[in-house]
């Protein structure tokens, strides 16, 4: 493998590992706001207990997410120096906005969220919970804005030539509201709601199956199910909007999504399949003219295919199948989450939600589905824009640090793999410890003195 491929693998690995945690913290933050709001509204002890329990898990997820996020900023400079210089003005502005609007908000209220019970009023603590949840979303906003600018650049001009060329902001708000940012941001945020809510569903399904903490588990399950159902249905809409945007601004990527080669042909929509680059065809289950209908509301309108683009400006033949598979896996999981949520809501309405052991077992494992969907969704978006790192402006092969050696990247990749493996094992150990311990009845135990500090991550 050459330096470019290894650098891409390393960045893909580190960002994929990091991306386990922010969606969980964003989604869990929303669930926490609802739980604590229910506690303030009703005064019922079970809502306080579930809020305290999930705040501890939130703290663990948040801590790992911050630690793994820092690494990628260094990778920009060490592995992708040309890219860093080219987009520095754009990314610098977005990351500065994240620090001002998001990280400062999170860090300012996080201490109250974690340690403020019995030290501030319930309303102040609830306000802190809201601020931390909003701060998590603001972080996602600015990161997605920066990434969306790479997909659909706007509000910039190019200064310099050759290796000294760089993009400079001419209109900050045009950069922020570039053609894909709103659609992609809504898709990412709703995906995060699904990740957080299905984590809560999974843990509480486990408790119900084990007949532990039943009152709290059933109430928590219903809150999370409400969030999951609304989010899964909204994701159907945001996904369609995002695909429409890709068709308009990145038609080569859309063609890769569907493995569509022939621009003169009606575009079928495949539910599953396998692309054959040599024969320029797909073997699988399809809806004839389905893609044409989704994009043009007509089953016979042709859709621009991969053959409309020069080979050097579109994903490679091997990449097309990867993009096709990851995209369709994301869509399939999204539909499965809708079906699972609606089935559970129906059984809830019938009063039989917690009588179906097989359904609870499905929910116990369902935490994996939004994670997989989020990961493969990013894979399809990032691999689908290749060979560009900034769409139409800077190629990935030109963005690499010129002085970087293959051996250096290989060594750092091995080290990252080992360190992250240990970190993931530690995360699972601490998460399992918290889940096994379960919610604590704060009214049946002695509340610690104000001088004592509960560690929400280790305890």
UniProtKB/TrEMBL annotation:
Membrane topology type: Multi-pass membrane protein
Homology family: Belongs to the cytochrome ubiquinol oxidase subunit 1 family.
Annotated localization: Cell inner membrane
InterPro entries for this protein: Cyt-d_ubiquinol_oxidase_su_1 (IPR002585)
GO molecular function: electron transfer activity; heme binding; metal ion binding; oxidoreductase activity, acting on diphenols and related substances as donors, oxygen as acceptor
Official protein name in the record: Cytochrome ubiquinol oxidase subunit I
UniProt keyword list: Cell inner membrane, Cell membrane, Electron transport, Heme, Iron, Membrane, Metal-binding, Transmembrane, Transmembrane helix, Transport
Gene Ontology CC entries for this record: cytochrome complex; plasma membrane
Keyword Heme: yes
Domain of life: Bacteria
Transmembrane feature ranges: 20-41, 53-74, 94-117, 124-145, 185-209, 327-349, 409-431
GO terms, biological process: aerobic electron transport chain
